[in-house]
Amino acid sequence: MSGVTKVSRRSFLQTTGLAGSALILGVRSGRAAFLPVPGAASPAGVFEPNVFVGIGEDGVVRLTVHRQEMGQGARTACCMLLAEELEVDLEDVKVIQALADPKYGSQSTGGSTTVRLNWLPLRRAGAAAREMLVAAAALRWGVPAADCSAESGAVLYGSERLTYGELAAAAAELPVPDDPALKDMAEFKLIGTPQRLLDTEDMVRGEAVYGYDVDLPDLLIASVERSPVPKGSVLGYDADAARAVHGVVDVIALEPNSTGLTNAGVAVLATNTWAAMQGRTALDIEWEPGPLATETSDSHRGRLEEIASRPGKAARIEGDYDAAAGAADRVIEATYHAPYAVHAMMEPPAATARVDGDRCEVWSATQAPQWTAGEVAGALGIPGENVAVHVTLLGGAFGRKSKPDYAVEAALLARKAGRPVKVLFTREDEIRHSFYHPESYQLLRATLDTEGNPTGWLHRSVFPAIGWTFPDGGAAPSDQELGLGLTTMPYRFPNIRIETGTVPSSVRIGWMRSVCNMFHATAVQSFMDELAHETGRDPVEFQMEMLGAPRILDVDGGDSQFPYDTGRLKAVGEAVAEMAGWGREMPDRRGLGFAMHYSFYSYTAMVADVSVSPEGELTVHQVDVAIDCGPVVNPDAIEAQIQGAVTMGMSLARYGKITLGEGAVMQGNFDDYPVARMSEMPEVNVRIIQTGTVPTGIGEPGVPPTMPALMNAIFAATGKRIRDLPLEGQDLG
Amino acid sequence: MITLLVNGKRRTVDADPSMPLLWALRDLLGLRGTKYGCGVGLCGSCTIHMDGVPVRSCLTTVESASGNAITTIEGLSEDGDHPVQQAWIEANAPQCGYCHPGQIMSAVALLERTPKPTAEEIDVAMAGNLCRCGAYLRVREAIYRAAGSEGGGS
Fold it and tell me: What is the pTM of this model?
C-alpha cells in the first residue's frame, strides 16, 4: 500500500484556491509527533490523507504543509521530498500553510520530527502523482508508459513533451498506483543538495508575515499585565487611568483558565501598541500573589539538592550498583546544577483572534495549531471545529510557541471587546511568563575496582517535570523526559542504577530546544570527562572504550524503527576527534573539550577549542561538529541548524539563568538575560556522516553536547571543573 | 499631527509625540518590516536609518524623528534587490528571519561607512543586533559578500 489516495477536489480547493481541472492526491503522513499534545486527535482505523498535493492546469504544484516554519527549514524540506519524486523543479512547488485540522494527524512541530515522519509519505505522494501523469501521457501518445520519462514538470517521449499542467485533468481520471516506485538514494537529484529556505526573499525584504505582523480591519492591540507569580490574583486596578491614555479603547480583566495555561491578568486594548503599553503602565494593579510567592531560587535549589541526596525512583537498573559500590576500591562523585532557562526567541509570542458568535478565527505564530484550536474552543465554550487557526511564520520558537496561552488570551479578549484583538507579548512578558526549561540538580557516582576499571554507574536526576504545569499531568518526570539523555546512557558499566526524583516547581515548565537532553548531556559528558582524568585516561579514548563494540541499546522507549546504535555514536566521536586534531599540543590556558550525545535519533559529537585569559575571560575559538542524522535532505539547513544550536548552547552555558524571588521571575530583558552576540562566535565546522535509510532529527541535537564540550574545554585550559551553570559570575581565571 | 519623511514620502501620523517611531511605522503606517524585539535598544531588530545613520526605532520618538529622512527595510531598494539584500539571499543567512531586517539595516550602514570592513569592524558594527537562531556566521558571510571580499580571515 502506497498510502496515497485521490481526494475530493472540494476539500483541497477550499484551502488552496486551485482553479480548473486538477490532479489532487492525499497521503497519510507519519504517526504522532514525538511530543504528545492535547487536542491532536489521531484518526484511528480509517484512512484519511493528511498531506495534500495538487497539480492544476497551470502546472503549479501546490503542497499543503501541515508543519510550521520557525527557521528550521521544515517547509523547504517538505517541498524537496515531494519535488524529488514528482520530477518538478523546487521553484514550481507552492507551499500552502495548512489550517489546524485533526485530519493532519499531529501538526505539532517539535521533537525534530518533520523530515523523519514525512520522508516516505511525501516521496510516495510525489512518485504516485508522477506515475499517474506519465500514464496519462502514455495513453495520449499510445505508447508504453515504461518508454516515457518525467523531467522538470513534463513527461517526455522521444521528441514529444506534455507538461504536468496539460496532463493533470487526464491523470486525475486514472487509478492511484498501489506501490509507486521510489528512487534509490543514489538517483536523487534534489535531495542532498543545498537549498535556500523558501521564505528567504520575503524575509530580507521585510515582507514575511510573523505573528506580530498580522493586521485585520478594526483590529485592537492588547498588552496584558499578568500576575508576576503563577496562581496569583488581581485585587484591584485603575481602569480609568488606563482609559485616559489617547488610543486606549478598553480595559478587560482575564481570569486564569482551567487548563493551567493562562494566569490572571488585566489587558489594555488600544488602537496602537504604544497606547496599549502606556495604558498598561497606568493600571497600577494590586496583586494577591497567592501560595507560590514564598519561592526563591535558593529555596528551590535547596529542595532539589535535598531530593538528590537520597535514593530516588529507579528508571533503569542493570546488575547491582550497590554491590559494586560495596566492593569498590574508589567511588568518584560529582554533582551538576543548571538553573531555569527561557527561550528568548526574537519574536515574542503574538496571536490575533476574531470571534463571530460561536465561531472564532485565530492567526498565531504557533508550533501547535491543533492544540491552539482545542484550547481556544474550550476557553470560548464553542465546538472545536468552529475554530480556524491560521499559522504565520514563527520568529523563532524553540518550544515556547507550542503553548497556546497567547491565542487563548486573544480569543477571550476579542469576544469581550467585540472586535478583532492581537495580543502582543513584550520582551519582559516573554521572559517572565514562559514555560521554562527546568532547573536541574544531578548526582553521579562511578565505582572503580583496584585496577581503576569502572564497575558501577549511579545517576540521580532531579528536575521539575513538564507534567507539573498541567492539572492532570502529574509531577513525576515522564518516561519520555527520562529518555532524553538519562536512561539512554550508552556506556558499558557492568552495574547501572539510574534514578529520578519528583519535585514540584513554582513556575510552569515547558519544552525548550532539546529539552532534558541539555542537562543530562551536560552531566553525563562532564562526568565521563572527570572519570577519564581521575583514571589517567585520554577522555576520547576512555569514552570509546566505554562504548565498547557497537550494539543496539534498547533503553529509550523510542521508535523501534530507529534503534539506538552505539556504533553510530562512536563513529561521530571518532570523526570529530580527527577533525579537531584531538590530542595535539595546546598553548598555555587553551584547551580542547570533547562531548557526544544521542538525541532525537541523531548522533552528534563536538570538540570545543577555548582559551581562558588569566583574568578569566573565555574565548571560544572553534567548535568542530560531526553529526549523523541519516540521509541528508538539505545539507545547507543542517549546517545552519548546527551553527544555531552551538550558538544557543553557548548562550546557555555562558549566561542562561532565570532566577526567582518571592515567586516571580527576576529577569526581564536582554540586559539581565543575555544571549550570545556575533563577536562571541567561534568558527563552526560541520561534518555530516550519512548512515541509515531514514533521516532523523536536526533542529535540536546540536544543542546538548555544546555545554559539556565547552565545560570540558575550560577544564583542559585551566584545570577548573565547572559543575554549575551558567559560567557568568564564576571565576575562571 | 506629526509629519514624517519615510522612504522618500511625506507621511502624517496622529501620534503622541513620545510614541517610539517603531510603533508609528508598524501600527500607523503599516510598515511592519521593522521588528520589535526588546523595546529598550538591546537587540537591534528595530534598526532603521535616520539621515543614513542606523538608529533603534524603539528608542526614537516620532517627535525627534520628524524632519529627518527615515529609511526602513521596505525603502532600502525598489525591488528588494539592494546589494546587501542580494548578498543575504546568496549566503542563505536567515533562519527564522525575524531579526534580519534590522541586521540588514545595520549592515548597510556599516558598508556605507566602511566598504571593506574587517572581521573586527563587522563584529563591532553588528554587536547590537541579536539573532537567537544563531545565524551570525552567515550574516558575517553575507556582509563579506556584499563588500566583495572573501571572508577576510573570519
Answer: 0.94
